[in-house]
Amino acid sequence: MRCVRVFLAMLLLASPYFGSVSVVFGQEEARPGSTSNELAAGFHPIHEGYAAYPRVVELTDGELLATFDHRTVAGRAIGSTRSSDGGRTWGEYRPLSKDAGGVDLANAFPLQLDDGTILVACRRNRPAASRYRLEVHASNDQGRSWALRSILAEGRKGLWEPLLLLMPDGTIQAYYASEESSHPDQTIEIRVSTDRGKTWSTPTTVAAKRGSRDGMPGVTRLPSGELLVVFEAQDMPPFRFILRAVRSNDGGRTWPNHRELVYRPSAPTSDRWSAGAPAIVLTRSGSLLAAFQTDERVSYHRNTRENDPRHPNYNYVRHTTLAVIRSDDGGKTWSKPSYLLGGPGDPACWNGLYSLRDGGVLVLTTHRGRVWCKRTDNALSED
Fold this sequence. Notes:
Elements: H1 2-14, E1 22-24, E2 27-29, E3 43-47, E4 52-58, E5 64-71, E6 75-83, E7 94-100, E8 104-112, E9 118-125, E10 132-139, E11 147-155, E12 159-166, E13 172-178, E14 187-193, E15 204-207, E16 215-221, E17 227-233, E18 242-248, E19 260-263, E20 275-282, E21 288-294, E22 321-327, E23 338-342, E24 348-355, E25 361-367, E26 370-376
């Protein structure tokens, strides 16, 4: 997915939103007749300015910390904000990290450790210089200030989408997409830290298949202790992206080659449609929810830029719907999708999920140049 990411990174650096609204210095300029109240019921803005790729962690004090990336006058930045009412309203913006133009600073993912330390993993890539780096930043004062804690991975070909998982024994697992050993393909890798994110092990391959650019990993730990990783893959022609999963029964030390099919686009024509960028959570009731972005609701018209996925200028991200599926048997089977937001020409993308301690689930999305969240229960009904 490097070509898609590089194109989007260049587009985002040039224009803070690739859809059908314009943004001026980080502030959304609404389309004629549009208001935030036109969003699906229950979605609340996390940040008032332009932002993308929202992710959340529930802190020990009960508050939520959200991270996201956004454009600045000088380049790009990662920021954060907090909510004390379950995501309905959000407080002041706090900067986490920033960089100059030409730097692809994005993919922030937060995690709190048992000692209260908050970690945020992110990418800081310089594609023009063929320099790619995944970083981990730390805060010991509830997100008021941040310092670089470690370099998770560095390379010359491509590193993307870090995700952190805290294990019961206190070790931290970091999952991410890498091109370093597989370019032009892409693999999912894991590294482990036993010292609170200060140093990291050498990588272990989680998922890889020749000819497939496996990317955008999401992971959850099942009640049995089994680890389930979902990701986008390119191993089922003619589809551009489908969702696959792999499992580990030994805490992530080994990963079998068996690749489960989680979801493939259900468009009326069999063509280069996509279902990608998944996130997954285990709910308090034991169900699994997986969110992803798909262009399967596009009305097909041959040889048109906006309606034919084989057109050279077609960009599936411009037409994505936020979809969620559910499994009640540990991911062996999945429900039909529920469509929560977005659609052709009005995308909802780079979605996230977070399972709250009170049993609710927070759905996160990028839509109309801003970041949003919605609280649901595990049946996907409105809270």
